[in-house]
Amino acid sequence: MKFLKIFLVILFVLIAGWFLLTGGWSTMQSSYKKALKVNTIEGYEKFVLKYPDSEYRSEIEEKISELKLFYDAKAENTITAYQEFIDKYPNTEHYEEIESRIAFLIGFPEVMNLMITKHYTDPELIEYYQ
C-alpha cells in the first residue's frame, strides 16, 4: 500500500511537470508570435524580459536593432539615413516605404532612373526607359 502511494505521488509529479513544461513552451511560442505580429520595439523588449533565455532572443534583438535604425532614419528623413538603413537591412519589410520616402526627397523622375539602372543591366533597356 505504501509503495502504491509513493508510486502515485511520483506519477503525479511527473505528469504535473510535463504539463508545466509543455504549457510553458506553448506560452513562449504564443508570446513570440504575438511579438512578431505587434512588431514594435516595446513588444520585442517585453518578450526578451519575459524569456531572456529563449531560442528566439538573438532574432528578437536583431528586430529591435532594425526597428530602432528604421525609426532613426525616419526621424532624420534624409536620403543618406534611408540608404544606410537599406544597406544594413536590404530584405527589410520596410523597403517599399523607404523607397517611397527617398522618391519624395529626390523627386520622382530621378528615382525612376535610379530604379531602372538598379533593376536592369542591359544598356539598351536602360536607355529606352530613361
Short description:
By secondary structure, the protein is mainly α. The protein has helices at 2-38, 41-50, 57-76, 79-88, 95-106, 108-119, 123-129. Helix 1 runs antiparallel to helix 2 (41-50), helix 3 runs antiparallel to helix 4 and helix 4 (79-88) runs antiparallel to helix 5.
Can you walk me through this structure?
There is one protein chain. The chain has 130 residues and is mainly alpha-helical. Helices cover 83% and strands 0% of the residues. It contains 7 helices and no strands. 5% of the residues are buried.
- How confident is the prediction overall: mean pLDDT? 80
Order of helices and strands: HHHHHHH
By secondary-structure content and strand pairing, the structural class works out as: mainly alpha
The main pleated sheet reads as:
none
Note poorly predicted spans: none
What percent of residues are in strands? under 5%
Radius of gyration: 25 Å
C-alpha termini separation:
91 Å
Number of helices: 7
- What general outline do the C-alpha atoms trace? rod-shaped
**Number of β-strand runs:** 0
DSSP helix fraction: over 70%
Helix/strand layout:
Blueprint: H1 2-38, H2 41-50, H3 57-76, H4 79-88, H5 95-106, H6 108-119, H7 123-129
Comma- or semicolon-separated keywords:
130 residues; mainly alpha; 7 helices
